[in-house]
Each structure stands twice: as C-alpha cells, then as structure tokens.
Write a structure and sequence with these properties.
With 140 residues, the chain is mostly helical. It has seven helices and no strands.
Length: 140
C-alpha cells in the first residue's frame, strides 16, 4: 500500500497538470501568435503544429515522471523531477505588472502545487517507500 505522502503527491501533482493543461488550452492562440511573430521561429516554419507538439511534450514528461514516482516507487524519477523543477524555477518569469492576469495566476498556482507535491516526496514515509522499504499506515 502506498504511503499517505505519495498519495497526496499524486493528487497535488495531477491537479497541477490539469490546471497547466487548462492554461495551455486557454492561451493557445496567444502562444501561436507569439511563435508566428518571432522571426527566427517563423523562418523555421513553426506555427500551430509546433505549439501543439511542445504542449504535448510539456505534459507527457511530467506524466511519465508521476507514473514512475507514484506507481513504481522510482527514486531516480523523483530526483529527475526535482532537477527539472529547479531548472524550471530558474526560468520562471513572473511579470509583477500582470500578477492579476489569469495566466500568471495559473502559473503561480501550478508552480506552488508542484512544489508542495515535491516536498511531500521528502517526508519519512515517502523516502522509505521510494527506497523500497515496507510502509504501514504511513510509518516506515
């Protein structure tokens, strides 16, 4: 049986991906316009297809990591998620002037949910479970 920290990691992480998916759908036209307005990307012929492909990969990678962490107890996937999250935080761009904009609020919410979910992976029951130890009622 999976420990409570892993169950909560799963819930929060999947909720963050759901919100990220909604954000991608609602901002799709804006993303396409930005790609088409960039001369370097326009020269490559990138447009709707590229935005769809990048969006799909952006959701597929975390889903794969979620699966291996929450369902297969992979410590490697945990550390890969931590590494990718830290890298993502370095590139997180928040425009204070637009902090009330829906897309900025969704970005902040997704980031917060993912950070809380990742912190849960470092609780004793999750660490023990990811190390392959038996966990009974959340106690290693």
């Amino acid at each position: 049986m999976r420990p409570p920290s892993i169950v909560w990691f799963e819930r929060l992480f999947l909720l963050s991906l759901l919100i990220a998916s909604i954000a991608m759908v609602t901002s799709f036209d804006t993303l396409v316009a930005q790609v088409e307005a960039d001369p370097a990307l326009a020269g490559l012929g990138w447009g709707r297809g590229a935005v769809i492909a990048i969006s799909a990969i952006s959701l597929l990678m975390p889903l794969v990591l979620w699966y291996f962490i929450a369902r297969r107890a992979s410590a490697f996937a945990k550390w890969l998620l931590v590494l990718l999250t830290v890298a993502g935080l370095l590139f997180l761009e928040i425009d204070i002037a637009r902090v009330t904009a829906a897309d900025t609020l969704m970005t902040l919410l997704v980031t917060l949910l993912q950070l809380v979910a990742i912190v849960l992976l470092f609780r004793a029951d999750a660490r023990a479970w990811l190390a392959g130890e038996d966990v009974v009622d959340g106690t290693p």
